[in-house]
Each structure stands twice: as structure tokens, then as C-alpha cells.
Fold this protein.
Amino acid sequence: MVDVTTDGGVAVVTLNRPQARNALDSATIADLTAALRALDADDRVDAVILTGADPAFCAGLDLKELSTTGGILGGGRAESEAARRGGPIPSLEVPLIGAINGAAITGGLEIALNCDFLVASERALFGDTHTRVGVQPGWGGAVLLAEAVGVRRAREMSFTGNFVDADEALRIGLVNHVVAHAELLPFCVKLATDIGGVDRAAMRRLRRTYGEIADAVAAGGWEAEAAAARGWQGRNFDPEEIERRRAAIRERGREQAQPS
């Protein structure tokens, strides 16, 4: 389920499956894509904020559905333009700010990475657990994580599945700001309002320029990731094993989220 609110030129899109830590099932993926496309087509919207209903931002793909069918791995998307645009995140003209209010894990991390930039609550937690689930990234994780934090740090996060808290995410450049939890949305709304105060045509042209440069640098990376995901899903997808790993991943995340 996805909720959308607008106030002036600022729209807030909220992933609203808190009982499932906002995990992405097929219906939520479809709703998110449709909501973002509708806002992108609305001339009254200057910027969009993407967040989750507490306590999580997004726990990634719904492993319960994934373990049953594997269908939401999106094999068909991998050879389409949609896959090169971040899975559920379509190609947008409007700027997209990620307001990371809690855990952003695996597919949830990939969705966050597809935002233009990120602001984290003090409660935010980031993790790439594809290797712990037993799947491959398909929404740009292998491309965008290295772009954000550098290839060596990205490899460490991906190979270990270890979690990064908000302060560490700020230190390594994964997020732009860390704010008190209660201030997360007001802070992001202020940034979105600032975006609304610039020349729209100039800003959107510059946004496209950033995208064109990124595509020129990383187009081959997107294609390689998509091919690897398709191949892995076809040969190595094991629903029973994925289901078995769900509890262990959740427990490990809780342990790593505890202060030392």
C-alpha cells in the first residue's frame, strides 16, 4: 500500500505496510510506480519525498511472497528500460528525495539509492543483504551503491551483508544529512520547498544532465547487473531456502542495530 499527500508543490509518498516493515509485494511495487508517474506528470509538483511508515523505510522485497513464487524478482523487467531505471522507480523529471526513517534493506536500499539524494533519521539503518537472502541485485544496487560510497566500501557492504547506521552512512557519503527522527519530514519538506524556488526548466535540464552523465559512465554496469540477476534467478532461485533465511536476517539486523 502506498499513500500520497501533497501540500503546495511538495508531494510525500509513503510506503505503508508497517506490519511487514514496508516490504515490497507485487501490489505495492505497482502502486509505487503508478504514484510516482502520476506525480511526475503533475505540473503543480516541484519535488517528491519518498519515505516509509514507521518503524522502517523498506525491508526490501516481500520475502514471504518471494519464497512462494519468486515472481517479484522481476525477471521480465531485467531486459527492459524499467530495470535500468531502478525497478519500481520509473524515469522521472521531478526530483525525488529519500527520507529514510528506519531500516532500508536490500531492495529497500536499492530504492533509496535511486532517489536523487537521501536524508536519514537518527533511526535509519542501511544494509545490502542480497547475498544473505541468496539473490542478486536487479534494481541498480551494484551500480548505485559503489557510486554513492566508493567501490571498496560497497563491496564490503555487499559481501558481508553488514548494516550501516545513520552516522556511518553520513560519514561515508551514503546520505546527505542525519536529523532527529521527528524532524525528518519537516527537514525534507524544507529542501523540497527550496527546490520549488529555483527556475524549474533550468533545474530539470540540469537533473537530466546528471542522469545523462551517469548513464554514459554506468550503462554497461546496469546491463551487466541485469544479466547476472536474470541468470541467477533462472538457475539458483530456491524458494524454500529463501524462506528459511528470513528469520535469521531479521534477527541479525536487530542485533546490529543495537548500540554497542
In short: The first strand starts at residue 2 and ends at 7.
